Known about the structure:
Elements: H1 11-23, H2 28-47, H3 49-96, H4 102-121
Helix pairs in contact: 1-2
Amino acid sequence: MTKRINVTFDEVTYNTIQLIADRNNISMSELVRDYAYQGLKAQVGIDNIDLITKIIREQLSAILNPSVERICALSAKTGVMAATSTYLNAESISRFVPDELQEEYTITYEKARKKAIAYIKTPINQND
């Protein structure tokens, strides 16, 4: 069931509506009705943007979280393996360094460790 309302326009707006309706081979009433529907649909979207945003975030989280968690787990395992490898290399090398050079070896190891930490703290350049 449809309801009727009367709307008034200034002459310029009325003439513009008439011109657009004529170009599209539709009545002025149909054109105004279509514009009203479009405006109402847009307003519904604006009024519900918070709900829509929440739904999108939930869906993205559901999709991305398993991958993010997997990447974090792999990163943690990589860190453990890197630390194990570093310790094993340092321990193995230190066994071949004569006692009188052990202090120099330890200093060199600490310098290398500090350089590695500095390297990790540098920003990632997308061009590298």
